[in-house]
User: Which sequence fits this backbone?
């Protein structure tokens, strides 16, 4: 049996569930096992409807106390389910919720936990998980000494089930409703209050997956607004080199470099940056680096994955339009 | 703990680690007036307070977070240019006192994060840029430069900055070309010799300095290198003045000394004219700290039609630091607070077209200031000017 | 408030190349600089700020070999009151579960109101020990906390950062455990007075026997089979053509890599 915990927030099922379902389908078909999705919520039916073609069984536990994620309240419910159905492996998303819950759950059950995995291999008696260490510089294969085990799955590692070729055909999950009982002392220990939003002043560029960095090559401050708009369009944040800070065009918390911040985004677009070593040392570990500079000898090209020798002020508007077209 | 005990403890710890000169100071304030920071209005760096604070144990004595943070920034401001030492009537070596304080702090990771990262990078991969050890001599491959073998007379050590940086590489390339033209037998130092670590010693990372220095000495001895040409005055000063007490027997020669000798011996003859006004900046470490003033000038004067200018009142031992020493190359001071800005302005005021330097740090700092201030001045290393004339 | 802070000594690999050693099960540790795990510094600062405001003591705990003393002394220099080092070959060989069990055993003998750990360690990046420890001690926990408020000395109000710029606000009853997110405050430097005082503060060492720990009970639940380098892409492909062609190729690339 393969189990996965469906993560939802404010009535919305989170995308990671569809990725975990892909993983579950992949393994289930190879190992001839069944998939059980577990939904803990104040209103299970709409969520169950969304996922019923992707798993064999759904367990629903419904109560107002389950409306919002809460490790202390989810814990006894999930513990009982795991003890009861003894799944070989339980998937939980490696998310804000999952990192709070999974270690607590695994520890209280004294079962193995493998976190932040991007790939799994399950054979008849062995579970192997792949994960990154040392800030992504090393990969590691970890096995579980015993089963059942819990695995937290890294977001973005799998396709969503709807477009995946791993989909087991003709599934229509049967739904089982379990009663909810909890020691009344537990909700007093840990209470969900409300959701809020992170204040937007003062962006932490080290947390951004996409960065558009500007250097002296942008020439004038007025060129910044178009670049800012482009950054928004591709879901990225603006960063820069020191001269831009000096000029007062961007605040100090946007500086990338040895005396600014060191960043490791998925995508780093360097516009008009020559690549002085003080800057390079702050961004050379980005997953994909695209650099645009007039000078073919610019040192930035020695760390970039893709280079364009050209005038960014000409290329950027064309690029921005293309992106707009593609998104439409 | 009573106040008297605490401050005495602080004082004694600093004195023990090399701060004895603090006792020589009688607070005349000469150092403060001569420090390059004095020329920047926004900065209030009171050099003479340093020995005073050591004597009363008032160094990092506060327990308030903000006070400590500010103090740490100030304690890492000194770039070790020794202008104060040059004129101090009592010969107080403020640099030694500052280094003693920094050693205590660095042991507890009390230093700007930027410098901590530099120490980590040098410790792990032998250079402050954190690039791979094996890439050190890649710049030489394009010029088909051989590695040193014992049959050769000289070894050339380019310094981490030219070796690993695309901008400063031109210094190493020009130097190698000059030496090649002289038919001197030389090869590149192998990549098991790492950064000289002079910067680390100056900002207090003494343990790392000693460990890597000892490794360097062993590697040089193994390679049987007896005479080493260096591009950076920092490598020069540390091999000349600090490595011998750790057991090094390598004789160092700075590129300008070598060039001057080669020209004198007519091994190379500058023939192509360079009709430009060139002002020479004495690097603190080459000039004031090692008294090498004339050789660089002799080299420049040997280039036909080159007009050599001086920065009046601030030449030779009065040269104003570029600000890159003791980790200054990596630290970031706000716009309007940069030492190198002062110097390039002085250079521009001489009407020079080219600012000639003899140090990779100076090259980087001045090129940066010129770009930021949008000035009409070129920076060239002496090796670059020389190769154009050969 | 009696606060316990768990510290971990890790190699600083953020600025260096990391390579796998000849066993294939560990990294080459030869030229690495060791330091306090970044998130743990923030946890310690959080504890010190709470101590300044509410009084009480801060106890540091770390699992590791003797050189871990450096991390503990630094913590003591910043203002912690005592430190405990848990050292034994058996602990070294274990996984995160082992570490959590060992720390739980040590803490079981100490009275505390709050335990703080870093949210993640820069070496293994597992993010496990905090909540696992809380489960063993049977106290509530919250991970990735970036704001804390103490209410009436018995409750905590915390903010946790979730995905997409959303915060979750919760209330926990003390005693509790929090894993602390980086950026929550600015970790302080120790003063020289602090450094001098640190030498005199208690640093107790416990091995498996002294802790009275059941060896079977702390056996790892997972095995590290191998470490290897991730695939590296070749560098610097130049995109050429007319401005239009370039912008098209570039847009396709950006769309893919930005996950649009």
Assistant:
């Amino acid at each position: 049996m393969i189990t996965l915990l469906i993560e939802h927030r404010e009535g919305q099922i989170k995308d990671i569930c569809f990725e975990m379902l892909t993983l579950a389908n992949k393994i289930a078909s190879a190992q001839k096992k069944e998939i059980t999705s577990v939904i803990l919520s104040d209103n299970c039916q709409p969520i169950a409807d969304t996922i019923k073609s992707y798993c064999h069984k759904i367990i629903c536990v419904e109560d107002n106390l389950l409306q919002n994620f809460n490790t202390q309240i989810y814990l006894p419910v999930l513990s009982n389910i795991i003890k009861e159905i003894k799944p070989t492996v339980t998937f939980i998303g490696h998310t804000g919720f999952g990192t709070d819950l999974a270690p607590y759950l695994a520890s209280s059950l004294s079962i193995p936990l493998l976190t932040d995995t991007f790939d799994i291999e399950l054979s008849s008696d062995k579970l192997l998980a792949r994960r990154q260490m040392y800030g992504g510089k090393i990969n590691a294969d970890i096995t579980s000494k015993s089963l059942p085990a819990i695995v937290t799955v890294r977001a973005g590692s799998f396709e969503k089930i709807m477009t995946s070729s791993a989909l087991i055909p003709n599934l229509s999950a049967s739904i089982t409703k379990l009663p909810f009982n909890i020691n009344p002392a537990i909700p007093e220990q840990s209470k969900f209050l409300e959701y809020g939003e992170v204040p937007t002043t003062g962006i932490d560029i080290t947390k951004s997956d996409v960065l558009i960095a500007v250097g002296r090559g942008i020439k004038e401050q007025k060129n910044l607004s178009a670049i800012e708009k482009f950054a928004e369009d591709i879901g990225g944040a603006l960063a820069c080199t020191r001269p831009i800070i000096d000029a007062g065009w961007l605040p100090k918390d946007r500086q990338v470099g040895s005396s600014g911040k060191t960043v490791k985004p998925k995508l780093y677009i360097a516009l008009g940056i020559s690549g002085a070593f003080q800057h390079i040392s702050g961004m050379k570990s980005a997953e994909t680096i695209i650099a645009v500079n007039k000078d073919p000898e610019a040192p930035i090209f020695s760390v970039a994955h893709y280079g364009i020798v050209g005038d960014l002020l000409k290329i950027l508007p064309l690029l921005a339009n293309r992106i707009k077209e593609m998104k439409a | 703990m009573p106040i008297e005990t605490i401050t005495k403890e602080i004082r004694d710890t600093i004195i023990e680690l090399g701060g004895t000169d603090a006792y020589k100071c009688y607070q005349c304030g000469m150092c403060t007036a001569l420090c390059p920071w004095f020329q920047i209005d926004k900065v209030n760096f009171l050099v003479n307070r340093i020995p005073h604070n050591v004597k009363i144990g008032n160094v990092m004595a506060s327990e308030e977070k903000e006070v400590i943070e500010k103090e740490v920034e100030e304690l890492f401001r000194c770039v070790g240019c020794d202008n104060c030492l040059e004129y101090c009537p009592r010969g107080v070596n403020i640099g030694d006192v500052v280094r003693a304080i920094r050693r205590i702090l660095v042991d507890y990771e009390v230093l700007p994060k930027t410098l901590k990262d530099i120490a980590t990078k040098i410790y792990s991969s032998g250079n402050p840029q954190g690039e791979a050890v094996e890439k050190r001599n890649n710049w030489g491959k394009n010029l088909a430069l051989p590695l040193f073998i014992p049959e050769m007379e000289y070894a050339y050590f380019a310094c981490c900055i030219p070796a690993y940086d695309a901008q400063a590489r031109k210094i190493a390339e020009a130097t190698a070309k000059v030496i090649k033209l002289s038919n001197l037998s030389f090869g590149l130092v192998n990549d098991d010799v790492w950064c000289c670590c002079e910067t680390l010693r100056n900002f207090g990372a003494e343990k790392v300095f000693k460990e890597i220095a000892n490794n360097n000495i062993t590697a040089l001895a193994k390679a049987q290198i007896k005479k080493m040409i260096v591009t950076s005055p920092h490598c020069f000063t540390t091999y000349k003045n600090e490595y011998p007490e750790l057991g090094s027997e390598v004789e160092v020669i700075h590129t300008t000394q070598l060039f001057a000798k080669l020209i004198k011996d007519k091994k190379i003859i500058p023939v192509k004219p360079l009709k430009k006004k060139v002002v020479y900046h004495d690097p603190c470490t080459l000039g004031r700290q090692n008294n090498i003033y004339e050789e660089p000038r002799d080299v420049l004067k040997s280039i036909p039609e080159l007009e050599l200018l001086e920065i009046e009142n601030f030449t030779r031992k009065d040269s104003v630091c570029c600000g890159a020493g003791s980790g200054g190359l990596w630290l970031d001071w706000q716009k309007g607070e940069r030492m190198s800005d002062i110097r390039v302005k002085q250079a521009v005021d001489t009407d020079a077209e080219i600012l000639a330097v003899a140090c990779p740090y100076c090259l980087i700092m001045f090129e940066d200031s010129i770009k930021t201030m949008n000035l009409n001045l070129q920076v060239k290393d002496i090796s670059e000017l020389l190769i154009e004339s050969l | 408030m009696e606060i316990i802070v768990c510290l971990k000594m890790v190699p600083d690999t953020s600025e260096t190349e990391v390579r796998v050693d000849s066993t294939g099960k560990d990294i080459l540790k030869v030229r690495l600089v060791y330091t306090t795990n970044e998130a743990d510094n923030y946890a310690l600062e959080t504890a010190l700020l709470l101590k300044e405001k509410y009084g009480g003591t801060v106890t540091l705990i770390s699992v590791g070999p003797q050189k871990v003393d450096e991390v503990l002394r630094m913590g003591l220099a910043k203002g912690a009151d005592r430190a405990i080092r848990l050292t034994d070959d058996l602990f070294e060989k274990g996984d995160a579960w082992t570490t959590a069990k060992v720390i739980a055993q040590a803490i079981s003998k100490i009275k505390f109101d709050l335990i703080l750990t870093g949210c993640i360690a820069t070496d293994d990046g597992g993010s496990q020990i905090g909540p696992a420890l809380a489960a063993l001690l049977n106290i509530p926990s919250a991970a990735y906390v970036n704001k804390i408020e103490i209410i009436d000395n018995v409750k905590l109000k915390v903010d946790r950062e979730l995905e997409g710029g959303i915060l979750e606000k919760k209330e926990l009853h003390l005693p509790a455990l929090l894993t602390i997110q980086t950026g929550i405050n600015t970790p302080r430097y120790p003063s020289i007075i602090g450094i001098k005082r640190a030498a005199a503060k208690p640093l107790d060492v416990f091995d498996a026997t002294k802790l009275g720990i059941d060896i079977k009970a702390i056996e790892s639940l997972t095995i590290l089979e191998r470490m290897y380098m991730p695939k590296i892409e070749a560098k610097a492909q130049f995109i050429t053509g007319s401005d239009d062609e370039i912008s098209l190729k570039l847009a396709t690339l950006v769309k893919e890599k930005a996950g649009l």
Observations:
- Chain B has a mean pLDDT of 94.
- Residues 3-19 of chain B form the longest helix (17 residues).
